[in-house]
Amino acid sequence: MIAYVSILSVLLLLVLAVVCVDAWRFLGTLAGRFHIGRWQDRRAWQEALARTAAAWTRRMPAVPKRDQGRRILWEMARGTYADAAIQGWQAAGLFLGLHAYAADRKDEALKERLCRSLEEHELVKNCLAVPEPERWEADRLLLDYAVLEAGCRGADRVAEASAALLESLRTEAGTLAYRRRQPGVRYVDTIGLACPLAASCAARTGKEEYWNLAVKQVEEYDMALLPGSSFPAHGFEMERGYPLGLYDWSRGLGWYALGLCELYRLMARHGRPEADGMARRILELAEELLPLQKKNGGFGWMVARPESVFESSGTALLGLLLLAAFRISGEKRFLKAAFRAEKALMGVTRRDGVLDMCQGDTKGIGMYSDVWNLMPFAQGMALRLGVELNGEEGKA
Hints:
Distance between the termini: 77 Å
Order of helices and strands: HHHHHHHHEHHEEHHHHEEH
Strand order of the largest sheet: 1-2-3
């Protein structure tokens, strides 16, 4: 009888612990949204974003693998709460944003801290310690790019490992698969994750083949553009050219935009003739996006559907594209749209500097999340948009 009561007591305590964790997370989100979006000063907003982002470099919140907000403690105990694969690009966005912030504020101490954090990051150390590129997927490529962009110690070793990973993902078509088990399917995510790294490796190593890889990866995706449009499908099946998923998924457009913008910047810096093709794509996409901005300046998770829920990660990335379009063309309407996107992001930032309303992790093509919460990647991209707009104040 005593043993039975003891077992029952332990089970009740476990159930209570699971319920308390669920309630704590739910109430924490509600409390964080109290007085949300009351930011008026751009610089103060950026400082709040940066404080939160810097704290997350030490302990980054995980983006849940599933949408359900119940039995969180149980999911953690089973190891199914978060997917390790996405932590690489989550950290990459965070570090890229903080690196831009440190450069804008001329904060050398912060730059040094960021480099140390990147050098000590588990994914970076593991990649260098065990040089087996087949262990890794495309998700981590943007983190390697962040290391190269920051100019960290050991960047040459990272570039070497990155080149090996790119080669391991290369298919018979000469371009990169997002998943090795799907060599005949392309995802728009790869444009943003892999192309900047390929270009950075080309610039660092002098190998022409990586410039060619980045360009071919983008040009190959022209098959997946909506006819008469610059919107890419989430994915496409290469053999028959079938589009897969949505054309106007906000973060998907954002991945495409990030790849184009980073390629244009690197190619222009190194005098590459391919920069003109990237510039053309940037301007065409920016032109098509202008009439789709919401009244608050942001973009919905489906950008072509006016009633779709506002989404922060896509808004930050598309804001960067609009800024790039202004710098290419000099047309102020693009700059005004980029400032409006920033204003929308300020409107969904909590009092403690946490950017809210980020769509959760996508489960697969056509399987989009219905969760809206924080996301370290979006936190960094919003910060990057803000500090890059600092240099354009007074021009709009």
